[in-house]
Design goal:
By secondary structure, the protein is of the alpha+beta class. It is built from eight helices and seven strands. It has a single domain, classed as Cathepsin B, Chain A (Alpha-Beta Complex), CATH 3.90.70.10. Keywords: Signal.
């Protein structure tokens, strides 16, 4: 069922009163040592408001998209690496915002670095790697690489200050929608773990609605919403032949049911 008018009005009122207080992208922030923020008030304080993308205007509170600021869709070599490709997608967005060049960052370096350290690569450890050391350009460690060259020790690293949990599996569905919209309205992509059915990797067309048991998990980046249609637009790393050129829309209701955990990056200044 559609979200009720009081919820929508509350959302608009909250953003209109809170967004101007957010620090602009690149503004200095206090040091934060805890990896993985859970308190939503702290995440609100740390989350960037990006001028020219995030906006408190009514039109942009109704719909928002950062799609044009993202790099081209890529195809993950195996679904077990989706989280790393989604993580690199989100980091690239921030790295390239204030640059005259567009740099692809290496998700493969993240996975191999963790594996070489004796860890089973996963998203939370990937966040930790970006906090502590960062990843490198995909020009140094290309997609589908099997080795890390020695040159990584003498090149620029790209990382984050921290990350926040926007919601968890126990969060109510409409709160997942609320927090995701709030982050996007300020110009921030949201990395999400989505429960799906077995047909997801073969999806054709621009809309996803589960038709069977949702026993699989996929990692995607939420890059936009439409408040009139009550849909989110999600970006995958399953290639341009998947969905609608690598993108898919999902209703607020289905998102509230299927999105298990949502994350937002706190990039470096």
């Amino acid at each position: 069922m559609p979200m009720t008018r009081p919820i929508t009005l509350l959302f608009l009122l909250f953003l209109c009163t809170r967004v101007p207080a957010q620090q602009a992208y690149g503004a200095a922030k206090s040091a934060e040592t805890l990896q993985g923020l859970n308190d939503l008030a702290t995440i609100d304080q740390m989350m960037y408001y990006i001028p020219g993308i995030g906006s408190p205007s009514r039109e942009e509170l109704l719909r928002q998209s950062i799609k044009n600021y993202m790099m081209p869709i890529r195809q993950v070599p195996q679904t077990g690496m989706e989280w790393a490709y989604a993580l690199a997608d989100c980091l690239e967005y921030y790295v390239n915002l204030n640059s005259n060049f567009k740099d692809n960052l290496s998700p493969d370096y993240i996975v191999m670095n963790l594996a070489n350290a004796g860890q089973r690569p996963n998203l939370v450890d990937g966040f930790g790697l970006l906090i502590n050391s960062g990843t490198v350009s995909a020009a140094i460690v290309p997609y589908n690489s099997s080795t890390i060259p020695n040159s990584v020790y003498s090149v620029a690293r790209f990382g984050i200050t921290n990350f926040g949990y926007l919601f968890r599996p126990e969060t109510r569905g409409r709160n997942r929608v609320f927090e995701t919209r709030k982050a996007l309205s300020r110009g921030n992509p949201v990395l999400v773990e989505l429960a799906t059915d077995a047909s997801f990797t073969r999806l054709q067309g621009g809309t996803y609605e589960p038709t069977g048991p949702t026993n699989e998990t996929h990692f995607l980046t939420v890059i936009g919403y439409d408040g009139e249609k009550e849909t989110f637009e999600l970006r995958s790393s399953l290639g341009r032949n998947w969905g609608n050129g690598g993108y898919v829309s999902i209703s607020y209701d289905d998102f509230g049911d299927l999105a298990r955990t949502g994350y937002v990056l706190i990039p470096k200044e």
